[in-house]
Amino acid sequence: MTKLDTDLSGSPDAPRRAHIKSYGCQMNVHDAERMADLLAGEGYVMTEEAENADLVILNTCHIREKAAEKVYSELGRLRVTKEQRAADGRTTLIAVAGCVAQAEGGEIMKRQPNVDIVVGPQSYHRLPGLIARAEARDRRGAIDTEFPEEDKFTALPKPEAKRLMARGPSAFLTVQEGCDKFCSFCVVPFTRGAETSRPVAAIVEEARAMVEAGVRDIMLLGQNVNAYHGDDGKGGTADLARLFDRLSAIDGLARLRYATSHPRDMNAALIAAHRDNPKVMPYLHLPVQSGSDRVLKAMNRRHTRDFYLRIIDEVRAARPDIALTSDFITGFPGETDADFEDTMDLVRQVGFASAYSFKYSPRPGTKSAEGEDSVPESVKSDRLLALQALIVAQQTAFNAACLGRRMPVLFEKAGRFPGQASGKSPYLQAVNVEIPAENAISDFIGRIVDVDISELASNSLRGKLAEGQSSAVGGKAA
Question: Is the dihedral of CA 393, 398, 402, 407 positive or negative?
Fold first, then answer.
């Protein structure tokens, strides 16, 4: 969720306060940041407490069934908060944004009378008008789940440099939205729309502003990011590899990453970028979902097991040390023990640095939801536990292989403990380092410093500054 910008008194002249809570993907996190930027121009400041907010926005995810259930549960709690604030003479607007809003807009208003605004992920740039309608008690007019013709990125205000600086040296940048693949379990084509790509020039301009504000590491986002095909400004289109080339020319930008990708769109140029472009990090999130060809066909994934493994071989040939991560679904309708074993075999064959895994849950409107959810919940759960145990073992092995290595770490913030700084390795691992007492932790934030990895923690690495790095930071190291 967004962070509190400042402490506010309860005076009548105090600015309005907004609270944004995001669920789900990295795109939602970035959307929440852009909504915060938009609301700042309307006189709002962010607060971490819903109880202190004049506007509460739930930025929702519709990929998993439980994600939608969490939203309705949270709305129940917010109803109580709204009533308590009303008793004190304070007005609270509640907005539901994101993919649940897009998929269930009218239903949300019916089920939850306390909701004032419903806005889809392609329409949040229209929030100021929706707020005005809600304040005028025009509840019907405060729903916007259309796919507007105007470019929301053009309509959104540019974030102020101080807001970018406050978010730290790593940032998200949306370059592509929507998906044309229509996997049988997925709602994204219905909630985010068809694949669209932003122009190269607009992306470069936004990235340059980020770097000028201190950003060193940019994660390019898209529902199907490696399908990127943006206007190159010369009458043609650029793919993701060419976009990397343009972004890499920005002085001060040190690292580039991207998520989430589809195996069908891993072209030769993009694979070569992992080998040839030093700013493209050795990290690739490439969802496979299943290791069974029969299940992949039922999922309409448009790739086979062998195709996926060939892509992995090509990527590893280009960048042998790459950290590979993926997504998996267990218990897809019709999945047999043999199908699940194919998935386990694929995981053993690839060896992942980490992965996300979920039990199948039918989503309304998707093709797979039309049939019977035939795999018992207990079987789904058992398979998920077995898969996760294997993935955790592989993650531990990947991290253990980093022991004794010297890694460039981009420090992002102070650590959990006094005297500690926290950052990210090129493989997107969290790395915690004790900073010598003679150094200020703030001097390390935003810098890439060599660290000798010495310990493993449950979800992170620990290390020590390489010899000479403490004094080098005082002289503005890398």
Answer: negative
Cis peptide before 343 (omega within 30 of 0): no
Query: Which of 383, 400, 417 is the endpoint of a domain?
Result: 400
Beta-strand (E) ranges in 175-226?
A: 176-177, 196-197, 217-221
4 found inside a domain: no
Does residue 129 share a domain with residue 173? no
Q: What percent of the chain has pLDDT over 70?
A: 95
Structural domain span for residue 211: 152-400
Same domain, 171 and 126: no
Report helix, strand or coil for 178: coil
Please give the torsion angle defined by the CA atoms of residues 55, 61, 65 and 69, in that order, rounded to the nearest 10 degrees.
-10
Task: Quick: pLDDT tens for 320-378.
Answer: 999 999 999 999 999 999 999 999 999 999 999 999 999 999 988 899 999 888 899 99
Query: What sign does the CA torsion over 175, 177, 181, 184 have?
Result: positive
Question: What angle separates helix 268-276 from helix 305-318, to the nearest 10 degrees?
Answer: 30
| Residue finishing a domain among 98, 127, 144 | 144
